[in-house]
Amino acid sequence: FKCSQFNVIAQVSAKKWVIYNTATKSIVLVDPEVIDALKRNAFDEIGEGDISRLVQAGVIVDSDLDEAARMEYSIGQTKYGRMRALTIFMCLTSECNLRCTYCFQDYRTRAVALDQKALQSLLRFVDREVEERALRQLNVVFFGGEPLMNPEMVIAAAEELSNRKTEDLSVDISLITNGTLLNGVMSRMLAEHVAFVQVTLDGPKRIHDARRPYKNGAGTYEVIMKNLVEAVELFSHIGVHCVLDSETVAFVPELLEDLEERGLKRENVTISFSPTHPTQRSLAICPAPEADLDR
Description:
- The protein is built from 10 helices and 11 strands.
- By secondary structure, the chain is α/β, with parallel strands linked by helices.
């Protein structure tokens, strides 16, 4: 074995470290002894269970694997491969109803939204690609801004794209949303067409509300949780995504407990993580937890 060159390691408490692999997007919580063994490449000192987890997450890889070459090949396939599949990321609007503390978007500029003319142009492109490339798989991801701030076009696009399904062409539609507008009515209108919905929760209520508030500063956690409880009954797959930094990663167990208590620990609910870099503001609003992660 050897350690992956794509590992990012951070200490979250006196007894726990987290390893995030940027290639596989996996996150693993380990003891200090494991970190010490990894730093010394002493893989024989790591228990069988931990080794299995680390291999599965891509934290450790075969010693003869050229990770850089594999990544270069993967990127090349994405950029230049003429596979019989097409993936489209469709921005429904650049407008958003939240003001997340780490968001890159500049809301001083005028919002741009998808309209019927742009949708029809996109559909013509899809039809041409399907015919010329004999596509078998079409994947479409709705995102924003907050895509549900353009509800009429979300529904219209979902219906139009779904209608292109045939015996030879599979169409999978995903929605990336902050979850605040995914109420019962919207979920029921989209569930027939959308297979996967991703909603972001950055931690338990106090952490999430500090990082992902409404424009007026009010919290969004309870609204999102209420919507998730309804949505999980309608969509085939719900993804809960956590954006973490070194100051918030230790709150993940508390979030998981709350999800379970609300009945959201289910087979059709998965959880993923991605890192962000802490700012002075995030450090101020997300103090390090006193609770021990061992609980």
